Amino acid sequence: MSDKIEITIDVIVHATEDISKIFQAFEVLELKEDDFTINETTGHFDNPIMLLNAKIIKKQALNFIKKLVELLPSEQIDELINDIEERTVDSRFHMRLDKQELVKGNITVSEKDTIKIKIHTPIYNKKNTIKTFTEIFQIAN
């Protein structure tokens, strides 16, 4: 397993949401509040929003993936593995988690109200993409 893994996590937090609950929820994935940078901005309707961003590497990134794979339902892992080609752009695997579910302590892949996750590992030959990311998602098994 390559230790050249970098993971980027982006979260939009609306003014109505409790940011401390979101940070707390990330602890299950081995992330702490200190891992995030916070940018305040405004949304479409001039509502205040906060953009959280974390970039983790090496051992911390591997621990994050281990936890993620451990906590995701196995059929979702299978789906992610089946979708590797469509989800990978320039050695970056894209996936999203449901933010509301995370706050409840559940890890689930979703396309709505999401946490964006990009897993980057150098892939020098595009035909190794599926193999490389399959190995990453099988780390915990």
Notes on the structure:
35% of the residues lie in helices and 30% in strands. By secondary structure, it is an alpha+beta fold. A 6-stranded antiparallel sheet has the order 2-3-1-6-5-4. β4 (88-89) and β5 (92-98) form a beta hairpin. The longest helix has 14 residues, at 58-71. The model has no long low-confidence stretch (mean pLDDT 92).
What share of the residues lie within helices? 25-40%
From the N-terminal CA to the C-terminal CA, the straight-line distance is 13 Å
What amount of the residues lies in strands? 25-35%
Determine the structural class based on helices, strands and strand pairing. alpha+beta
Unreliable segments of 5+ consecutive residues: none
Radius of gyration: 15 Å
Count every helix, treating DSSP H or I runs of 4 or more residues as helices.
Answer: 6
Number of strands: 6
Shape descriptor reads globular
Query: What's the SSE pattern?
Result: EHEEHHHEEHEH
Main sheet summary? 6 strands, antiparallel
Strand order of the largest sheet: 2-3-1-6-5-4
Tell me, rounded to a whole number, the average pLDDT: 92
Q: Which oligomeric state applies?
A: single chain
Give the SSE layout.
Blueprint: E1 6-14, H1 19-26, E2 36-42, E3 48-57, H2 58-71, H3 74-82, H4 84-87, E4 88-89, E5 92-98, H5 99-103, E6 114-120, H6 129-137
Antiparallel strand pairs: 1-3, 1-6, 2-3, 4-5, 5-6
Short descriptors:
alpha+beta; 6-stranded antiparallel beta sheet
Short description:
The chain contains 6 helices and 6 strands.
